[in-house]
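User: I'm new to structure prediction. If I give you an amino acid sequence, what do you actually give back? Let's try with this one:
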Amino acid sequence: MKQVIRFLLALLAWAPAVWAEKTLDFTVTDTKGTVHHLQSYLDQGKYVLVEFGYLN
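Assistant: Good question. You get back a string of structure tokens that encode the predicted 3D arrangement of the chain. For your 56 residues, that looks like this:
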């Protein structure tokens, strides 16, 4: 069981760096007019969840 936990912790520590390398930088503007760059958040070491949806 300890080996499984160590493996999962190692995977969690390694995965964000791999995901950050594979993302495309894009820019969005929020409803207040502030421009956000995905790569700037990743460079700060923050986790980013991108959710796409639509409004009717």
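You can read the tokens as a compact description of the fold. Here is one thing that stands out. The beta strands are 27-29, 35-37.
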